[in-house]
């Protein structure tokens, strides 16, 4: 019987259980979507439903591969900005609220009155002022205000991957990639929890020490063993933040090459490994931050809701044609050249205000007509109260949309510290969007743009941590199992074709 690894890959939309061999080959995958549970007006995660499904799926894998594979290790990867308040045994004592919840503006002001001045906090914690609850510390603050009794009773405030690791082992822990990812809770200058943890009154309820994701937390509990059929000596690692899992294979194989990983999905996450931690003065106050890699090194990062934005607009364009996005007629290179040359039509961010590179910008379409441009807020378009004419032409509308996403990506890439010669590696959902990729190559003539063939990069990175734990080695020693093929992307147009359109687009924002 051959050893195998199980990964719980917990995204905001899809929850997955993925089985890997000890050569890091994917064996099987199951996925499911869990709708939010409404509680007190909040969308909350269905923790109990997810746990039951994880356990039953692992049980199914044990039966399906009996005599062929034996699961020896489990790793967890989750999306960011989420925590669970638990009792001493790891049972939730409060709802796990979606980070997309947007409190009123005065909530954010109260938070910073408690935590400290925005730019000072960003310089120390690597964390910008996101909207909604995209900072864990803001989620804790909301819990403190709305559920004071639960807040007071909590023994642990666990980062999301470590909550799940505790459910499987009964042991609390803290891990660097999650604590160090736009939480406000990690002080980069001290390598420890920040003053915000003290301001919230939770420092003694955050596990210590802060450890690395491939360390063994423990073995599964007797209850987990009974419900899954797994061996009681099955090990569980600490868990890892999803973006940091997805960049692990690249960090392990790129050597000294300078690259930015353009990881695309609901969120587009642009990650640039940096030689040192620190912001330039003009970067403070902007939506740029630092991730902490699995090896504790700084990764300069910029994000925006590119996938969500694309999906929203493409569905609207398709609805106007009484069809589906996959059946829309595709724009030609001539359509892109025409749209850029006419510079009359624009789609501007942001679907969730304050979530990306243009805080304060409201999602809208713009048509230049006569002396003044006509502004069409997305909310009005969706309500049917106003509609720009260019959205009725599917080729033009798609060209405008792809250009908008590329220009947002361009700003994010620049803010990660991209320089001439830095490789741009695109993976994820936009890898299949040929127009997006060839436009991106047009925007960066001095930077090689590649598509990678690494599928399920987050699950793969998490599997690396489990295999390293199983073998008692550093994941860098697994580079021989990692084969990332890169396909070069040719530019669609000359860089100058974008210049005037880009200027008007940015000015409009």
Account of the protein in words:
By secondary structure, the chain is an alpha/beta fold. The chain has 3 domains: 237 residues, ATPase, nucleotide binding domain (Nucleotidyltransferase, domain 5, 2-Layer Sandwich); 134 residues, ATPase, nucleotide binding domain (Nucleotidyltransferase, domain 5), CATH 3.30.420.40; 96 residues, no CATH class. Helix content is 36%, strand content 23%. It is built from 17 helices and 25 strands. Strands 1, 2, 3, 6, 13, 14 and 15 form a 7-stranded mixed beta sheet that branches. Strands 18-19-17-16-23-24-25 form a 7-stranded mixed beta sheet, sandwiched between helices. Strand 21 and strand 22 form a beta hairpin.
Rg calc: 23 Å
Largest sheet: 7 strands, mixed
* Percent helix range: 25-40%
CATH architecture label name of the largest domain: 2-Layer Sandwich
Spatial gap, N to C terminus? 59 Å
Backbone shape: globular
Average residue pLDDT: 95
User: Poorly predicted ranges (pLDDT <50, ≥5 residues)?
Assistant: none
Strand runs, count? 25
- The overall number of domains is 3
- Beta fraction: 15-25%
- What is the CATH homology-level superfamily of the largest domain? ATPase, nucleotide binding domain
Number of helices: 17
Which fold name corresponds to the CATH topology of the largest domain?
Nucleotidyltransferase, domain 5
Estimated structural class: alpha/beta
Keywords:
509 residues, alpha/beta, Nucleotidyltransferase, domain 5, 3 domains, 7-stranded mixed beta sheet, 25 strands, globular
